[in-house]
Hints:
It is built from six helices and six strands. The protein is α+β, with helices and mostly antiparallel strands. The protein has a single domain, classed as Roll (Thiol Ester Dehydrase, Chain A). It has a six-stranded antiparallel beta sheet with strand order 1-2-4-5-6-3. Strand 5 and strand 6 (132-144) form a beta hairpin. The chain starts with a helix and ends in a 7-residue tail after the last helix. The model is unreliable at 150-173 (pLDDT under 50).
Amino acid sequence: MRPLILKLMSFWPPFLGAGIRVKRISKDFTEVDVEMKLGIWNRNYVGVHFGGSLYAMTDPFYMLMLMENLGREYIVWDKAATIRFKRPGRGCVRAEFRITRDQIQAIRTRADREAKVEPVFQVKVIDSEGMLVAEVDKTLYVKRKDRASRPSETGLRSEQDTIDVQNDRGDGR
Length: 173
């Protein structure tokens, strides 16, 4: 993904409508800063940030950062997320996404050895006073493409491939 595309994400309709702005992206895609001001389009019934907008501002970034850093040899997907609201969001809120070179290398090493890797990252949504508004845990799915299942001649994946991708219990059921 090119830096221009990431910068233009502020104009992606879900972000534009919620007032989510990508403020900074490091050249090596290991840091992304996002903010959202409280406005008429992201305000809930009681006048604070709508929870869906708070989640939306955290949604794609760890996946995109890993895709860019791991390269085309790896499949990277968002798999799951959990958001814990800590206090009402008022005014401008921000989220800072960080991935270290050591984390990237550890994920690459595990993906090279194992069938799949499901790293978990946490991002905090902070208000303008530095108070915690929400914590979001993002679970990603990472797999080497050469370990990815090959579609059958019919173009469909096997039942086992579908179970591996959708199963989050790790027990094969």
